[in-house]
Amino acid sequence: MKQLVITGGSGGLGNAILSEFPESAWKIFAPPRDELDVGDPEAIRRILTARTADLFIHSAGIIRDAPLLRQDENAWDEVMAVNYQGAADCAAALLPAMIRRGAGHLVFISSYSALHPPVGQVAYATAKAALLGLVNSLARENGRHGIRVNAILPGFLETRMTRAVTDRRKSAILEDHVLGCFNTPGAVAKFIRHLHDDLPAVSGQIFQLDSRVS
Ligand SMILES: NC(=O)c1ccc[n+]([C@@H]2O[C@H](COP(=O)([O-])OP(=O)(O)OC[C@H]3O[C@@H](n4cnc5c(N)ncnc54)[C@H](OP(=O)(O)O)[C@@H]3O)[C@@H](O)[C@H]2O)c1
Q1: 159 C-alpha to center of ligand 1: Å?
Q2: CATH of 2-208, one of 3.90.550.10, 3.40.50.720, 3.30.9.10, 3.50.50.60
Q3: DSSP state, 68?
Q4: In the chain, fewer beta carbons within 10 Å around the N or the C end?
């Protein structure tokens, strides 16, 4: 049975991903935050090292928005730790076993903000942009071992993360979508399943899943 390891499985997107990977076909390891805090490198090493994963999805993420000059230092560190450093640490823990098996797929959930940061979201945008560097580097480093690495920019999703976004701000964001609608967690989950199952020749790619046109 194939094995899925996912961080952020309790989140809006994580939940949708778990629904798309049924336990009848997949052995799932989706530790909650109190079992695996991705801001804790030692916990990541202890829990993930040598664990077998056919597919790893880093969906854990947080937002602590502020402009740089008003950004609390601890909040900056927390955003970097969860969105970026935790992703790199999880990859470092899982990759040796993937390399030994000659197979594996790492999927990182980045954000449109990585490429088009809105004003006041500097920490999140920086962390999500760093994730794209990680994807490209890991794809290059590990392709020869049969390991794939891809990034998803899921688009604006109505989840706990965006609950505080005002209707006015949402309307403004929607105006940038040429189709006039947001993506959904379920559609993102389906895309990840398709990417994993049906596109074995794809690695080192960044997939933007909405209708914002650059
Ligand atoms: N929603 C959007 O519009 C949007 C857009 C672009 C990208 N994304 C990205 O998509 C991913 C999923 O976001 P979402 O919308 O599903 O948000 P969400 O519902 O707020 O879920 C966030 C998840 O991250 C987990 N998490 C937070 N800090 C953690 C930590 N220190 N250790 C382990 N897990 C931690 C949360 O766990 P708890 O349940 O314990 O809090 C939760 O499972 C994130 O990476 C986010 O940046 C979201």
Answers
A1: 9
A2: 3.40.50.720
A3: G
A4: C
